[in-house]
Design a protein that fits this description.
The protein is α/β, with parallel strands linked by helices and about 160 residues long. Helix content is about 30%, strand content about 30%. The chain contains 2 helices and 8 strands; from the N terminus they run αββββββββα. An 8-stranded mixed beta sheet has the order 7-1-4-3-2-6-5-8, with no helix packed on it.
């Protein structure tokens, strides 16, 4: 009987520790349900952008990426995002995909425009800038530096005797 009581007590301790970690993870995750109005943006490429990712304006989180899918007619990536209700986007606002540091993930950055009219609920952000591929930039740098070396004429050096 003593061993059964010990096993039950150890099981209860394990369950309490598990519950503590779940509560701790939930409270520090800053997870909130997406509230606000929905708009969409179409991009050529969205490398690294994920559903549930941040939508930021001036570095401040103002929304969440709700859905990503491919438009079968235009073959553009369509991103549905939820923007906080207190943030009104002018019609000439822009959306761009930005890296969060050198090795960080990607997020969608909103750049407000100056138009007096606002994008309606369910409207579209017309000005978009696709994600910049770090690999293609490095490749362009390497190949452009090799082309410069090949184009450089060889200078003949006269030696003094």
């Amino acid at each position: 009987m003593k061993t059964n009581l010990l096993e039950v007590a150890m099981g209860a301790v394990v369950l309490m520790v598990c519950a503590f970690f779940l509560i701790f993870a939930y409270s520090t995750s800053q997870w909130q349900p997406a509230t606000g109005y929905e708009v969409l943006a179409k991009f050529d490429r969205i490398d690294g952008l994920l559903r549930g990712g941040d939508v930021r304006m001036s570095g401040v989180k103002v929304g969440t990426i709700k859905d990503i899918h491919l438009d079968p007619e235009t073959y553009l990536a369509v991103v549905h995002l939820s923007v906080a209700p207190h943030v009104k986007l002018p019609k000439d606002s822009a959306a761009e995909i930005v890296s969060d540091g050198l090795l960080g993930g990607k997020y969608l950055s909103l750049v407000p425009g100056g138009d007096e009219d606002f994008i309606p609920i369910g409207g579209e952000i017309m000005h978009t800038q696709a994600a910049v591929s770090l690999e293609s930039l490095i490749g362009q740098f390497i190949f452009s530096s090799q082309e410069k070396k090949e184009d450089k004429p060889i200078e003949k050096v006269n030696s003094v005797q």
